[in-house]
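Work package 3, deliverable 3.1, input record:
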Amino acid sequence: MEEDPTGVLVVGNGSAKRTLKAPGHLDERAQPFDEEVRRALVEPLPAGLAGLDPALAEHLWADVGAFTALADLLTPAHRVEVRYDDAPYGVQYWVLRWS
Amino acid sequence: MTLRLGRHVFADDATLMMAIVNRTPDSFYDQGATWAADAAFARVATVVEQGAEIVDIGGIKAAPGVEISPAEEKERVVDFVARVREAFPSLVISVDTWRAEVGAAVCAAGADVLNDAWGGADPELVDVAAEHGAAIICTHTGGVTPRTRPFRIEYDDVVAAAIADTVAYAERALAAGVAREAIVIDPAHDFGKNTFHSLELTRRLGEMVDTGWPVLVSLSNKDFVGETLDLPVGERLIGTLAATAVCATAGARIYRVHEVVETRQVVDMAWSIAGRRPPRRAIRGLA
């Protein structure tokens, strides 16, 4: 990463096991897991992002690896704008902007 | 190449209709219409009447869902195979299963073909085919676990991957003792593939045919047709037949289908255009 970046794009997604028709079928743990991620992203809670369970994320087909880097970037607190928060096709996506 | 499907032999210019018969309560196309044994049997009688050479009997839907044990799967298909065998001695009976245990039971009951839609997930299935003199369908799934949906799978070259995997599977079957003329390869549209992959496999099917192994295609009403035309299940027949025509022109030998009559006409027409089948009659301008 550049020393003084003007902006950072962090790409990931929540679980792909949110519904019966989801790519990974339904896993009951997916919704609570995504809720935990959502709270950490929206508050934001850097410690919560850093502390996401990678094994559970992998099991739930959630691509949250890059969110660990996000944890550092979000300290100290930022203003958060939630532009999208939904799970179409059984996959949880967010579009958020921190400034 | 001459095809030997269990008890049955077909000339090397023959195309074959494999009609899908679901002994499931939840398959995507018929939603359990032939779940009851008598309804499934009536479906067999109908497709035989329509000219299908093969029935493909399945006890587990491909999509994720309630886990079906080997015992439950056998309960659904074994006695049914025996009943069909007795009623239709000249019909080729294929069973759609990836499990060796189920394969052995259905072969004992009279099945001719093991259609392994999950690409060799159970390594012992080839031994069962060899032991019973059954044919085997070797599919490409990109290595996914049975009954899972594809999720952002990437290939450098999906056709090369399909050829490499199905030919390797075919050679493994050969080494296990399955007769060369009883081995068929299938690129398995939509299995471990997105719509772009399935379209490319269709476009380049000739490369699979060029391997020399007989090719089966299973296109019927699948999602790649539905997504290409943005049409739901139930409105995909015309798109299916367009894909069928392309595969027939390329030289596919076996067509796994819901609609036998329509597919037979398309395949016959395409084979005649390709110069592999004479017209049924040719009087016009010649009499």
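Chain A touches chain B at residues 16, 20, 22-25, 61 (CB under 8 Å).
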